[in-house]
Protein: DoxX family protein
Amino acid sequence: MSNALLFSIHDVLNRTRSLDFLAPLALRLYLAPVMISAGYNKAVSFDSTVAWFGNQEWGLGLPFPALLAFLATATELLGGVLLLLGLLTRYITLPLMFTMLVAMATVHWQHGWFAIAPSDPATSTALPLAQVGFPGAQASLENSEAVGERLKRAKMILREHGNYPWLTEKGNLVVLNNGIEFAATYFIMLLVLFFYGAGRYLSLDYWFARRLSRPV
Structure:
């Protein structure tokens, strides 16, 4: 490949930077409904949320459950709206990232990485990690064998005693592992927004910044 062709490709890629505002916009539009939905679900069943935050046996066992439940609910609801508007974006990502860290530590960490448990060790994304000795990857592969056996047994029971085509019409049966995968992904997306902001043109942050930067 000639140097001229390489420079041409590089030049074309550089010209796409004029559309760089689309990347933070996509992150905001992805995250906003996730946060609003999470906050709304907590709000409409707030008493249950408080009980789950505070219960030592089947909940999180956190201190001051009413206060923490209120803060989590308000952060997710307000944060989702601000992300949607592109307003105070870098500021709101901080409490949202903290919320994701708390969720990972208190809710998801004990279940490992995967949100949906892999059911086939041969195709699990943990396979290449296990081959290089990555911590926890081998345990994930062993767990996927157990998950696969349970799913196979469940499908047999449903085929024999239930309307299996109707039950799986909207999607395959899975085992919800509830690991840190989704919360970690949201944290990374918020981290990008923290450093890069809401983006140009399609955010209130951009227009307020332009307004404030104009000389009087």
